[in-house]
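To close the chapter, one final illustration. This time we ask the reader to focus less on the individual chains and more on the assembly as a whole: which components sit near each other, and how the overall shape emerges from the parts.
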Amino acid sequence: MDVSQYLEIFIDETNGHLQILSDCIMTLEKEPENMDVINEIFRAAHSLKGMAGTMGFKRMQRLTHDMENVFQEVRSGNMNVTSSLVDVLFQCLDAIEAYLDNVKESSDEGTDDNEAIIKELNDILAAGTGNASEEEKKPEPADDKKAGGDDKKYSKKYLEIELSEKEKEELKEAEKKNMSIYGLTVFIQEECLLKAARAFLVFKAVEDFGNIIVYNPSSQDIEDEKFGVDFSFYMVSNEDINKIMEVAQAVSEIEKVIGEKMTYSELTAAVEKREAAEAKAAETKAQEAKAAEAKAVPAPQAAATSAAQPAQATAKKSTPGKPVTNRTVRVDIEKLDALMNQVSELIIAKNSLVSIGSTSDSGSGGANSQAFHEQIEYLERITTGLHESVMKVRMVPIESVVQKFPRMIRDLSKKLDKKMELQMTGEDTELDRTVVDQIGDPLQHLLRNSADHGLENAETRRKRGKPETGTIHLNAFQEGNNVIIEVSDDGNGIDTENVKSKAIELGLITPEQGAALSQKEIIDFLFMPSFSMAKKISDISGRGVGLDVVKSNIEALGGDVEVKSVLGEGSKFIVRLPLTLAIIQALMVEVRGEKYAISLGSIETIEEILPQDIKYVQAKEVIHIRGMVIPLVRLDQLLDCAPDETEKESLTVIIVRKGDKFAGLIVDELDGQQEIVIKSLGKYINNSTKIISGATVLGDGEVALILDVNTLF
Amino acid sequence: MANNVSIAEDGKKQFIVVKIGSEQYGIDISYVDNIVRMQKITRVPKVQPYFKGIINLRGEIVPVMSIRTKMDLEPDEFTDVTRIIILKLEEHGVLGILVDEVKEVVTLAPDEIDKVSYDAKNNKSNFINGVGKNGEELISLFDTNSIIDETEAV
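The assembled structure is written out below.
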């Protein structure tokens, strides 16, 4: 067996534990007396230590070990949680995360010993408990006590192990060499998902001390997870059994380890009892195969101690080791992508059928074409359903991204010396996995921006009659085919006059131009590359690689950013993201014979207007419709089509919407609604205007371009 | 770029000979994924002028480039021998280039290829990294990688 196959589990779990630690420490800072939280932290630190140890990451183990020591003291009431302790703990988390990153990249924890942090931890420990950092922890006494009470539940199953001649020889040899023989049975928590991995980690841990002679069930069965919640083994070692049991216990999700030192004669006596009853097993292999059966036939001792055991054992046989409660499957994202591609192809094929159907039935009617149409509609329903299901599978809550933010705001609060808190709502809003993976950085940037530029310091806030603690609010929700994430703060808001003068200073506009700019146009300067309002550069923000990156990142995901700001009251950044990146419902339109697709999500209404309805405002074409003045965009001009001289009696206008802004697109023809698969234009085409966001293959094999109407505003 | 070119056992290389205008050009066969007939090219607005547009190649979107426009020759004229050569370039994916006609496949030994010296004044020769002699005829050999130079791949 090889550790690398468990690396992924290790990384996953460590991430999980780190998140728990981070959350708990945050809570702990607010409620230093909360015993539940302290216990939770202790448990997580303990598991981390165990896992790091078994995976052979000594530095990580050492660090977590020291963290655990500190919590041991906190738990037993010898120490109080102070702000400095919390700071150091967060440093520890960062260090562990750094180890984990190294592990992810190179399967190695790296070489940073983090001595400074460890020293700080120990200093705190020493100061807190009043004695020098004498190690007085050792395994939790509570567990030892529990062992007594739990003996009934945990029978000494290792006594049931059958031994072959060869194994007996080995044991005998070992005893001759003055090594001790230990019999151990390990019980894994019932809800554990990867029992084989746990078993492996246990073996790996104990093998540091000696050799395992025989397993029950066989090592192959253990590897294949063909066992219940326990497994037993005999090993020979020079170490003390308590030490071995301790390391085995340290593996996470191990419920209990029982074991004792045995002599060879005791061992053989137990075995012989059973051997007398059973046919003599000749070869090791045959015996190992039987090992599983042996479990169902409880040894006399086991039967005596626990009556429930046989029933349990037979029950286990019918459902070999798989927990019933957990009904989820982990799937590689690449497999999902492959599935998604196939669904896309299916939709294209379906669209071809639809277009064949609509052209062939014009001439010959009849029952055949009726049936054909019904089947096509049926197929359409299925493919739409299939698409939705696949999309749902790919959806994950944004929680995984935003959960690290409270910690970040806390750090920023210290660093900037401002009081602030982060409120989050709608963390359960779901987005496509690929979007979620990439939304973290832009959001982080916006939060930093709010913390650094938005919120005022406590003094200013007091003067303005605001609560001293600034509030940053992160809110996510779904709106139609989009997901909206809002980052708002109750800080200073954007000083547009300041921005304007900065823009003039940078030579982006002349003062005269500046006077004519709207609030929104001024705010848009903030999204320009290398435009920074920070008076001095800090490591938080101010390098001018900020909002423009946010904007381009979000636009790359097919979304957009909008800002609303009231000077003195705060600002709100609104990020709008598409639910999915792969397949959309679109309206097909024709402009001078060229086909374009417009996402249905952004279409508000479709209007038929007369040429004389077009009015002019500031020499731009607008229409006045239902009380709104909407600017018009002639798509043929925008897309550099050949000019059309013919006068039209009426114009088809598609009213599109982005946020609270509207625009009317003039098109020649409407070709109906279609489900389209978005494909990239490839890397060669320099699509700098971004009007075309992609292309799609239509049912008849023709290619249509997808218009991104968001770029028109 | 010579080390990027596929080398047959005895150092010979195979080239697809195409006609663009009055000249013959050779394209290293190892970069050629496919040769397809002229089909409907969907124009993409607001892109580099030498990009004719995109085509649907068995469900994949493939951009198509006009070598003529890129080399400042007169615009393409589409006939029934016009072909689109689909090139597969490492890292950059698939790209189609328009040629007037596909003639044949030739095998050239190293001594049949003359290197051309780089001429900074003439942009056109940037795409050519050698001249092959096939009997009496001369074939300009495309440097496939420089057809799309790095600065243009976005």
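Chain B has one domain: 2-147. The radius of gyration of chain B is 15 Å. With these observations in hand, you are ready for the problems at the end of the chapter.
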